[in-house]
Write a structure and sequence with these properties.
Helix content is 17%, strand content 45%. By secondary structure, it is an alpha+beta fold. The chain has two domains: 24-79, no CATH class; 82-166, Macroglobulin (MG2) domain (Immunoglobulin-like, Sandwich), CATH 2.60.40. Strands 10-9-12-13 form a four-stranded antiparallel beta sheet. It has a three-stranded antiparallel beta sheet with strand order 2-1-6, with no helix packed on it. Strands 3-4-5 form a three-stranded antiparallel beta sheet, with no helix packed on it. The protein starts with a helix and ends with a strand.
């Protein structure tokens, strides 16, 4: 019995120890720029002030990013992040990021008597429109402030969502 406990403890320690060795990375992408990556173990602190994000590393230079120029900050590999989100949700929006007119493709919707809504990340309803036509629906989002939003399409039988970025 004592040997079984010792073996179990050894296996658990090995599993948790190896999972701790996994490299964790923060990815930063500016609009029109390349993706910068930072190992979390090398970041001492992140600060946000005066419209900037500053990465304070344990050693080396201190990169600064203007928040208005950031496309995203992610803690997972961002390759295809927007396309993957759209494929999984079933709702296709374009362009994303959007400036003035957001297009929603409802070609795959089962019931076309539904509602398109745009919500802030804190759940506040900012835009709603009743939909009865098939195909691509265009929404004027020019009055929305720059930021990240959730676009929902719902009807009696389904709810589809996609993350959108307003520039």
């Amino acid at each position: 019995m004592k040997h079984k406990r010792l073996k179990l403890c050894s296996v658990l320690l090995l599993v948790f120890g190896l999972s701790g060795l996994q490299a964790q990375t923060m990815y930063v992408k500016e609009t029109g720029g390349s993706i910068d990556s930072y190992a979390l173990s090398s970041i001492k602190r992140l600060t946000f002030s005066s419209g900037n994000m500053k990465i304070i590393p344990t050693g080396g230079s201190t990169p600064t990013y203007a928040l208005v120029n950031l496309r995203y900050v992610s803690f997972k590999n961002p390759a295809g992040i927007f396309e993957t989100d759209q494929k999984l949700s079933g709702l296709i929006s374009f362009p994303n990021p959007v400036n003035d007119v957001l297009n929603i493709d409802l070609a795959g919707a089962k019931d076309l008597n539904g509602t398109i809504s745009i919500l802030s990340l804190d759940g506040k309803l900012l835009y709603t429109r009743q939909i009865t036509e098939a195909g691509i629906v265009s929404l004027d989002v020019s009055l929305l402030p720059n930021g990240v939003y959730i676009c929902n399409y719902s009807n009696k039988t389904e709810i589809k969502s996609v993350k959108i970025i307003k520039q």
